[in-house]
Every structure is written in structure tokens, then in C-alpha cells.
Specification:
This protein is α/β, with parallel strands linked by helices and about 280 residues long. It has a single domain, classed as Alpha-Beta Barrel (TIM Barrel). About 35% of the residues lie in helices and about 20% in strands. It contains eight helices and eleven strands. The strands form three sheets. Strands 1-2-5-6-7-8-9 form a seven-stranded parallel sheet. Helix 4 (about 140-155) packs parallel to helix 6 (about 185-200). It is globular and about 50 Å long. About 45% of the residues are buried. It binds zinc ion (2 copies). One zinc ion binds near residues 94, 164 and 165.
Length: about 280
């Protein structure tokens, strides 16, 4: 069974200008049975329109996620009804930095329209998104340690269904900057994250976007998928993290195969925050 539980639409600032309907039509064409729309909602930028940490911000760098969250949830809820005979459309959100504002976070995760919350960490407290950092000037080891510490806090906070793209900074550090990083030195930190997730009954996603980017591997890569499995992890969703209609479903077959090789016999998608399992 083909699913894609991580997709963005025009309600995400960094995605192409396609509607939820266009994404749905493509999913149906590909034979995807369940698709989650998970537009960005960065909790630390929920109310205020703030500039991202870029040198010359343009209008496009100004965001208030409260509004885009509302647009996304409304559009997906309407499309659910429209496509109900052809596609299980999941109303999701990619929640960034959930620990940064408890009130805003609760407002989003308690929204009754939501089926599914991906908990992501795109930036460290007081820093810009990992996308914007210049890794030639950064202490990469220090960044990774802080990244895993913050991820653990996010898991302890427990305001999501699955943890998003574990090892996300590698997209830029190893992929874009070509700085080889041996993340096996953080194995204990990653194990602590898994232990907390498993204890809380939460899951992880395998995010296939890295396969079509310079990094060339999913987030997380096979070794950590295997570690999650061997520690007793059972809940796994698959997501392309597509920011365009063309990327819907990309790499999903590959990551399902990796999951099977790591020992998983089931994948999952979420309805009303409950995992629905399917055979791999
Ligand atoms: Zn993300
Ligand atoms: Zn995403």
C-alpha cells in the first residue's frame, strides 16, 4: 500500500503554488491510498510576522504561521469531503519548534480538524533555520549536540504523533556543504530520543526527500531505522516531504523497502492521532 504522509502545498511559504486539490489529483493518479498534507507551522513564528535571519529580507521572508495554518486546515478539510471516495486525505501539520511557545503549540495540536502532527526541529533556539547557516563558520559538532538535546526536549514535551526527519541538519551539512559527518558519535543521543518516543507511544517518519537531494539518503538513514526497530520502535510513517506536485510519492517505494530490510513488517498513517497500520 502506497502512502505519503509528509507533503506541502501553497499554504507553506517554501512550496510551489499548487493547491490541495492538485496534490490530491496527483496522489490518486499515482495510486496513493492515504496522503497527509502537512504544511509548515513554525511555533516560534506563530503570531508575529518576523523576518528570517537573512541579510536582505524580501516580503517573502515575512511569515505569520497562524494564518497559513488556518488556510491549510480549512482547505484540507474541504478537500477531504471532495475526495473521500478516492483518497484518504489526512489533515496534518508539520509543527516546528513545538517547545518554543506552549500556548501557541496547544492551540494547534488541539485543533479538532487535525489528524496528524509531525514534530520537527528546523532551528535551534535563537538561531536561524539550519537552511540558512553557513557551515564553514559553524562548529558542526556543537550544533549536532545541541540539535539532539533539543530533539530530546521535543520528545519529552510529547506534542506530536511522529518525529519529523531525524538528522535534518545533514541535508545541508553533508548534502549542500559536503562536510562529512560521522553521526555514529551521537548514537547515545539518538537512542535516548527513540527510548522517549517508544515510551510515549509515538513514532518516527522516514523522510525520503534526502534521496532526491545531494545528501542521497533518507532522514534518518538505514542504520538509525534499524536502531529504532531493534529498540522496539513500531510506528513508522513514510513521507516524501514534497514541496511540489511533481515530487508527491517520490522515494516512498525505496524507503518502504529499507524499512522492510530493517525488520519492520508494518507501516502506518494517522487518523485522528491514532496510527492505522498496513502490511509492508
Ligand atoms: Zn521539515
Ligand atoms: Zn516538510
Amino acid at each position: 500500500m502506497l502512502t505519503d504522509c509528509h507533503t506541502h502545498t501553497h499554504n507553506s511559504f517554501d512550496a510551489e503554488n499548487d493547491t490541495v486539490s492538485e496534490r490530491c489529483e496527483r496522489a490518486i493518479e499515482l495510486g496513493i491510498k492515504a496522503m497527509a498534507v502537512t504544511d509548515h507551522c513554525e511555533i516560534n513564528r506563530f503570531y508575529e510576522h518576523e523576518y528570517y535571519n537573512v541579510d536582505a529580507p524580501t516580503e517573502e521572508d515575512v511569515f505569520g504561521y497562524k494564518d497559513s495554518f488556518e488556510s491549510s486546515a480549512a482547505e484540507v478539510t474541504a478537500a477531504k469531503e471532495l475526495y473521500k471516495d478516492k483518497l484518504t486525505l489526512i489533515c496534518g501539520v508539520e509543527l516546528g519548534q513545538a517547545c518554543s511557545d506552549e500556548e501557541a503549540c496547544d492551540k494547534v495540536v488541539n485543533d479538532k480538524r487535525l489528524d496528524f502532527v509531525i514534530g520537527s526541529m528546523h532551528e535551534l533556539p535563537g538561531r536561524a533555520d539550519f537552511y540558512f547557516l553557513d557551515y564553514r563558520k559553524e562548529d558542526v559538532d556543537k550544533l549536532f549536540r545541541e540539535y539532539f538535546d533539543e530533539l530530546l526536549k521535543l520528545c519529552v514535551k510529547n506534542k506530536f504523533d511522529v518525529l519529523g526527519h531525524l538528522t535534518y541538519p545533514l541535508r545541508y551539512i553533508e548534502g549542500d556543504y559536503g562536510i562529512k559527518t560521522d553521526i555514529s558519535v551521537y548514537r547515545d543521543n539518538i537512542a535516548a530520543v527513540f527510548e522517549t518516543l517508544i515510551k510515549n507511544g509515538k513514532g518516527i517518519e522516514i523522510n525520503s526527500s534526502g534521496l532526491r537531494q545531494k545528501y542521497g539518503k533518507p532522514f534518518p538513514s538505514y542504520e538509525y531505522l534499524k536502531l529504532y526497530h531493534d529498540m522496539g520502535g513500531k510506528i513508522l510513517t513514510f513521507g516524501s516531504d514534497s514541496h511540489s506536485t511533481a515530487d508527491i510519492g517520490k522515494g516512498i517505494n525505496e524507503v518502504m523497502e529499507l524499512a522492510a530490510n530493517a525488520g519492520f513488517d508494518k507501516g502506518a498513517y494517522y487518523i485522528k492521532h491514532e496510527p492505522v497500520f498496513f502490511k509492508l
